[in-house]
């Protein structure tokens, strides 16, 4: 199993949009690319996929930008993974050979655990803590 850089970038962009949701402030491509260290050209493609998949919305115009289509706690990581990366496990196991069937079953158990946990975790879980400690000099 390998999670892609594209998925990492999508999660970072979603986390940033989620942190701005309470204020209603839109996220612009330039700001997202800068703050989240994502190449802007690649980010445009990712945001297009997230928009087409219904996870984010876009607003046009001078004051335009992107925002989450739903509350962060309503968007599961399973949705994000499926949209951006598709099937993470694919067909890893070949049930032939003496131990092939047992290995295939074990991979299926692992896949089920991963999918269950990805269904429980949400974009809210990706958001950075806002309770940063303050140090005074």
Describe the structure.
- The structure is a single chain.
- This protein has one domain: Arc Repressor Mutant, subunit A.
- It is elongated, with a radius of gyration of 18 Å.
- It is mainly alpha-helical and 137 residues long.
- The chain has 5 helices and 2 strands.
In percent, how much strand structure appears in the residues? 5-15%
Order of helices and strands: HHHEEHH
Supply the helix-strand structural class: mainly alpha
Mean pLDDT comes to: 89
**Tally of domains:** 1
The strands making up the biggest β-sheet line up spatially as 1-2
What shape does the CA trace take?
elongated
Q: Spans with pLDDT under 50 lasting ≥5 residues?
A: none
Features:
single chain, 137 residues, mainly alpha, Arc Repressor Mutant, subunit A, two-stranded antiparallel ribbon
Quick rundown:
Helix content is 48%, strand content 6%. By secondary structure, it is mainly α. Strand 1 and strand 2 (65-68) form a beta hairpin.
């Amino acid at each position: 199993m390998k999670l892609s850089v594209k998925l990492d970038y999508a999660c970072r962009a979603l986390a940033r949009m989620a942190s701005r949701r309470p204020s209603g402030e839109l996220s612009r491509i330039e700001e997202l690319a800068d703050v989240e260290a994502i190449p802007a050209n690649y980010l445009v493609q990712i945001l297009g996929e997230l928009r087409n998949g219904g996870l984010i919305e876009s607003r046009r115009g001078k004051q335009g930008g992107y925002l989450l289509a739903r509350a962060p706690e309503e968007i599961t990581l399973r949705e994000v993974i499926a949209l951006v990366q598709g099937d993470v496990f694919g067909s890893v196991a070949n049930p032939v050979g003496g131990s092939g069937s047992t290995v295939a079953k074990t991979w299926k158990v692992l896949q089920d655990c991963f999918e269950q946990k990805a269904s429980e975790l949400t974009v809210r879980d990706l958001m950075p803590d806002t309770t940063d400690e303050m140090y005074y000099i």
